[in-house]
Amino acid sequence: MTKVEENQIVQDEQIDDVLQSVSDEFLKKKNRKRKITLAIISAVILAFSIVIITLSCVRVDLKPFFIEEPTQFSINIDGKTLYYDSSDENYNEFYSEFIKTFEITYMSAIFTGCLQDYKIVETSSNFYKNNTVNSAISSDMSSLLGSNYVHLYYIAEQKLYNANGQVCTSKYNSSQELKYVDIYFPLSTEDQIKDLTFYFGAYGDSQPRITKLTIKINSYSLYNYLINQ
Questions:
Q1: pLDDT one-digit tens code per residue, 42-65
Q2: Which three-class secondary structure state does DSSP give residue 202?
Q3: 37 and 85 part of one domain
Q4: Residues 40 and 87 in one domain
Q5: Per-residue pLDDT tens for 145-158?
Q6: Going by fewer Cβ within 10 Å, which terminus of the chain is more open, N or C?
Q7: What proportions of the chain, in percent to the nearest 5, are helix, strand and coil?
Q8: CB–CB of 192/218 below 8 Å?
Q9: For 104-142, how does the pLDDT look when each residue is reduced to its tens digit (9 = 90+)?
Q10: Same domain? 36 vs 75
Q11: Per residue, what are the HEC states of 170-181?
Q12: Which domain holds residue 48?
């Protein structure tokens, strides 16, 4: 073997060593990048899983914030009338069921659109038959309620509030704050989330009108509880 051939072999080996070194370094960087990417993906998946679990466990109360515990509940259901007030032995059990009706997980609320802000709609229809507070409800109200409904009665005047926390005023006279002592809402006989409308006998300085507030909720659990009483 000539000297030139020996030198060529040495050069080829050196080139192979350099290429191998470059290849090893490239593979190391590639593996390091892959590990970092996998770590980031794992962290994102873990964080997302925690959020999903939290949203599936934490419950939100969809009952309008200003609707307080009433003086008395009266319920018309399947042709009979039930009454509940704080002096009743089974009142706490009923009130617990009433509150749970409006509770739903954040996850369900998000996917069913239940978290939308409510709107208050003041109609021109009379709430009471004789246009006076505490009298019987009008035929218009009766037709809206059907045969299964809940009545919340307050001995003291309550105020209506918009979703933004401001007191609701009459669209017929903006200087009049809307007040009420009666709320009605129909009970659903279907086990599904759907629109539920509260009907207020709202008044300012004028006659009480049917005033509506609608949310999305499943009220079947309350209906199911009541038909077994």
A1: 777 666 666 666 655 667 778 999
A2: strand
A3: no
A4: no
A5: 989 999 999 999 99
A6: N
A7: 40, 30, 30
A8: yes
A9: 877 776 767 777 888 999 999 999 988 788 789 999 999
A10: no
A11: CCCCCCCECEEE
A12: 1-57
